[in-house]
Amino acid sequence: MDKELINSSDIIGMFCRLNMNSKHNLPIRPSEMGILIYTQKQTNSVTPLMISQFFGITKPSVSTIIKSLIKQKYLEKKISATDKRSYQLAITDKGQKLVDSTFNEYFKTIEVLNEKMGHDNFTQFIKLLNTANNILEANKDKKEEK
To answer: How far is it, in rounded angstroms, from Cα 126 to Cα 56?
Structure first.
């Protein structure tokens, strides 16, 4: 295998590990915080399917996270008036307080990158990551079609 590809893989892996292992001082897991922030930011009702599609994770994984957030009273279920089998999610006052109090801490890693890389390099970095994400997403969809 090409040494440059191996080195690139190592660098990407290290970046992912450093970002995932950064301490956010949160009372919940980063995956739970991501869903809490996503729910809080939406102007329309949020469903488990929306979360699954946005984060690219399975519905059973979403269900596990939602159950945990409901148990901890950060989210609540609101049964659909038109279809009693489905529900929307709403952030609770406790969840809103957590998002408000930890939002800056949660995004500190991104702020550090922006500050240390400089705005132009950071903007280019984000554009390249977005391009990479789009390529991987399209490739994933092609694999699922087979």
So the answer is: 19
In a domain, residue 122? The reply is yes
Instruction: Note the pLDDT tens digit of each residue in 69-120.
Output: 999 999 999 998 888 888 999 999 999 999 988 877 777 888 999 999 999 9
- Residue 98 belongs to domain spanning: 18-145
In the chain, which ranges are E strands? 75-79, 87-91
CATH assignment of the domain containing 68: 1.10.10.10
In-domain check, residue 4: no
Rg (CA), the chain: 18
Q: What span, in angstroms and rounded, lies between the C-alpha atoms of 130 and 124?
A: 10
Q: Which residues are registered as beta bridge partners of 46?
A: 89
Cα distance between residue 121 and residue 140, in whole Å? 28
For 129-144, write each residue's pLDDT tens digit: 999 989 988 887 666 6
Instruction: Give the number of domains in the chain.
Output: 1
Q: What is the pTM of this model?
A: 0.71
In a domain, 52, yes or no: yes
CB-based burial label for 74 (10 Å; 0-12, 13-18, 19+): buried
